[in-house]
Structure prediction request, 65 residues.
Amino acid sequence: MSRTSIPVDSATKERLDRLKRDGETWDEFLERVTATEEPIEAGAWSDEQAERAKESIRKSRENWR
Prediction:
């Protein structure tokens, strides 16, 4: 297995240290924080949801006239 180094500034390293669990290797930590069961789709709307939101905004703007 090959190894690599990832340079980070000290503030980033301090934040990572706080997230890393006791006894966890850096490899285990990085595996844990990068593993997802489902894709992260924060803010992603379906076409139908987007259209409903646009319609709500349009109606809201009409009510302010």
Q: What stands out?
A: The helical segments are 10-19, 26-34, 47-63. The first helix runs from residue 10 to 19.
